[in-house]
Design a protein that fits this description.
repeat; Rossmann fold; P-loop_NTPase; 21 helices; Nephrocystin 3-like N-terminal domain-containing protein; five-stranded parallel sheet; NPHP3-like_N
Length: 496
């Protein structure tokens, strides 16, 4: 069977592409061989390089997995028209585990699937250079022959296509071959699905935004049976790009308290502790009632809805070379770790990477220090912090935008006076532990004595500058620099 490509000197013979000018023949197998040199093998969902990849623990994340699979299958009326879904959440919230689980479900259901799992620590997966070719390679191995034939034609006509811009590659190697496939009579009951995980780990924020733009451009005409799932932290360049996109084409999922993450984390911890009690070499020395209920509760609270804390803890506790009961006591602060032993190495590396990527880190640490050490009242408002630290209105939001995966600037819920007050919320309870432990945070250490001294000096300076301020308004303590709040704050930092 032969197939002629209009407007070209190419036609197919026995599944390969023959050029009548160059007299060159390229088989579909040759197409894959040509692409293979430009493929990030570790980006596949089933890559041996990523074994054993993180995925959702059994009987957890049920609601969110259902929402994503319903979107892919068109079963959710609210998201049926959306061709792109953005799953976003704090650092360590479990986005990659969800993406991996979705990929395995789709693979098991024989969907046409292509994935790219970004990773900043991998030279091939830390950049977008091979994003398109990696996706195309996977599609070429699964879609009907016409797709491969069109890709072969493009590569034969322009062997350097793989070095051109992402825009050019997307159009020439994805869109046009898919259109050719549709024109050949191809149809499917399911959408072709592309999963791009960890977009924030792509090394260039501008490229991150371009990938989003290109995804929408690819599907703008709604003439391809293709859906794209993108997961990332809510970084500023990524969020800004999504905010400009058509509402009808985009479905968003925020990994927040609405998805019962605390319940899922408790289930995960309970199952892992049970595994230790039944499989660990020292299981005969572990009591049935271990761990105590309050210990489990503490671990759930410390997780703050982010699976990375719970996962890090259980990897440490479950070590077959150590006594689990002792290691749990180290985690809970009851016992000190041995010299050179860092139970939270993986978590510390994450925090260090994020903090190293921000500008003016000293000022940011001062703001975080205020949130960590301030007295428990409403003086945690952004307006108060800006006034207290002599910052311009809006500075806190600008400074914190690169820490959105660790810290949220949000409206304080249920304010007693019914006004909208922006506050700072630390998303990871364990971040405070990291910052207050110099052996872990090193250059990012929050020195309690030093910061209390700085805040006391600022209190005294403001009280000297504003001796005539009166505080008659009930809103004043939350929105301005009233002497009432300064006196309370000064007393707190001097006596803490």
């Amino acid at each position: 069977m032969s197939h002629y490509f209009p407007g070209s000197s190419n036609f197919t013979i026995e599944g390969g592409t023959f050029n009548t000018v160059t007299h060159q023949y390229q088989s579909p197998k040759g197409v894959l061989e040509s692409l293979r040199k430009y493929v990030a093998h570790g980006a596949f969902h089933d890559s041996g390089e990523r074994f054993d990849p993180p995925k959702c623990h059994p009987n957890t994340r049920i609601a969110i997995i259902k929402r994503i699979t319903d979107w892919i299958s068109g079963l959710n009326g609210d998201t049926r028209d959306a061709l792109i879904m953005w799953l976003h959440g704090a650092a360590g919230a479990g986005k990659s585990a969800i993406a991996q689980t979705i990929a395995e479900i789709l693979h098991g259901q024989h969907f046409f699937l292509a994935t790219f799992f970004f990773s900043r620590n991998d030279p091939q997966r830390g950049a977008a250079k091979w994003l398109v070719t990696t996706l195309v390679y996977q599609l070429a191995t699964k879609l009907p022959q016409v797709f491969r034939e069109r890709v072969a034609l493009t590569l034969e006509q322009d062997p350097l296509i793989v070095t051109k811009s992402l825009e050019t590659q997307f159009m020439a190697l994805v869109r046009e071959p898919l259109l050719e496939l549709l024109h050949s009579g191809f149809s499917t009951n399911n959408h072709i699905v592309v999963i791009i995980d960890g977009l924030d780990e792509c090394d260039d924020p501008k490229v991150q935004a371009r990938i989003i733009d290109l995804s929408f451009s690819l599907l703008d005409s709604r003439d391809l049976p293709l859906k794209i799932l993108i997961t990332s932290r809510p970084e500023i360049d990524i969020s800004s790009s999504f905010d400009t996109k058509p509402f009808s084409m985009l479905a968003r999922i925020a990994l927040d308290h609405n998805y019962q993450s605390d319940c899922d984390i408790r289930q995960f911890l309970t199952d892992k502790f049970n595994e230790i009690k039944t499989q660990h070499p020292l299981r005969s020395h572990i009591s049935i009632g271990w761990p105590a209920v309050d210990s489990l509760h503490t671990l759930v609270q410390k997780s703050s809805g982010q699976f990375i804390y719970a996962s890090t803890v259980m990897k440490y506790v479950a070590s077959a070379r150590h006594r689990p009961t002792h290691r749990l006591e180290v985690i809970l602060g009851i016992q000190l770790p041995k010299a050179g032993d860092n139970p939270f190495a993986e978590l510390d590396a994450l925090y260090r990477h994020i903090l190293m990527g921000v500008e003016d880190v000293d000022l940011i640490l001062q703001i975080i220090g205020f949130v960590v050490f301030h007295p428990p009242d409403y003086s945690n408002s952004v307006t108060f912090i800006e006034a207290f630290l002599s910052l311009a209105p809006g500075d806190v939001q600008l400074l914190m935008q690169d820490l959105s995966s660790l810290i949220s600037v949000e409206i304080y819920p249920d304010h007693p006076y019914g006004v909208e007050v922006l506050t700072i919320r630390i998303l990871h309870a364990s971040l405070k532990d990291y910052l207050l432990d110099q052996s872990r945070s090193q250059g990012f250490f929050l020195d309690r004595v030093k910061m209390h001294t700085q805040f006391a000096e600022l209190c005294l300076a403001h009280m000297t500058e504003l001796p005539s301020l009166e505080s008659n308004s009930p809103l004043q303590p939350f929105t301005g620099m009233s002497p009432y709040v300064l006196i309370r704050l000064n007393f707190y930092v001097l006596t803490a």
